[in-house]
Design a protein that fits this description.
The structure is a single chain. With about 210 residues, the chain is an alpha+beta fold. It has a three-stranded antiparallel β-sheet with strand order 5-6-7. Strands 1-2 form a two-stranded antiparallel sheet. It has a two-stranded antiparallel ribbon with strand order 3-4. Helix 1 packs parallel to helix 4 and helix 3 crosses helix 4. The longest helix has 14 residues. The two termini are about 20 Å apart.
């Protein structure tokens, strides 16, 4: 289970839409009741604490999803681009196929558990490499340690950002069944390194791995 590592593909899909001119960073993105209930303050998951039917810019939504791992932001972005999370998942799966992610299938944008929502560490590494190579202008957000929104400051859960100055991303994930997951990357000299660990027992364990 990818848990919130799913949001790497959600971000990648939105970045492609920005590149193609289908959306803009200044777009106003509204939080539907579904986004609020399934992924936001109405649930126990990670959240930007966006109010139901509230809105903010697409750029803020992206930062809230990347830095705070907001499930509400993920679902709102999916609905904004494709009209529904189901339709957005089809686009995610198309990108996965294009990248050669042969052991991956998505059914939602936030990483909520589902038997048909799965990936592999290798596939996440492929996606991470593509994200860094294709969208360096947005990749810097994955290294930000905190994000202030609506007066609420939340920190990035990637402990390696605080422990190793060469680490510049990428994303953590966790559900009870997926365990603690991490896709990490560091730039050392001319070498870019990417590592993915999944199913560890604690935030510290995934950082040590």
């Amino acid at each position: 289970e990818p848990a919130s590592l799913t949001k790497l593909m959600t971000a990648y899909t939105i970045f492609h839409a920005l590149k193609d001119g289908k959306v803009r960073l200044t777009d106003n993105v509204v939080v539907s009741e579904r986004a609020w209930r399934e992924g936001g303050a109405g649930s126990a998951g990670s959240t930007m604490f966006l109010p139901i039917h509230g809105s903010t810019t697409l750029e803020n939504m992206l930062k809230g999803m990347i830095i705070q791992s907001g499930n509400d932001a993920s679902i709102a972005l999916a609905e904004h681009l494709s009209g529904s999370e189901e339709a957005f998942s089809d686009v995610m799966n198309r990108h996965a196929k294009e990248l050669g992610m042969n052991d991956t299938h998505y059914v939602n944008s936030a990483g909520l558990p589902d038997p048909q929502h799965y990936t592999s560490a290798f596939d996440i590494a492929l996606l991470s490499r593509a994200l860094i190579r294709e969208f360096p202008q947005y990749y810097a957000w994955f290294s930000e340690k905190d994000f202030l929104f609506n007066g609420i400051k939340q920190g990035n859960r990637n402990l390696l950002l605080y422990r190793d100055p060469t680490v510049d991303g990428i994303k953590t994930g966790h559900t009870q069944t997926a365990g603690y997951c991490l896709a990490a990357s560091a730039k050392r000299g001319d070498m870019r390194m990417i590592t993915v660990v999944m199913g560890t027992e604690s935030p510290d364990a995934r950082a040590r791995a």
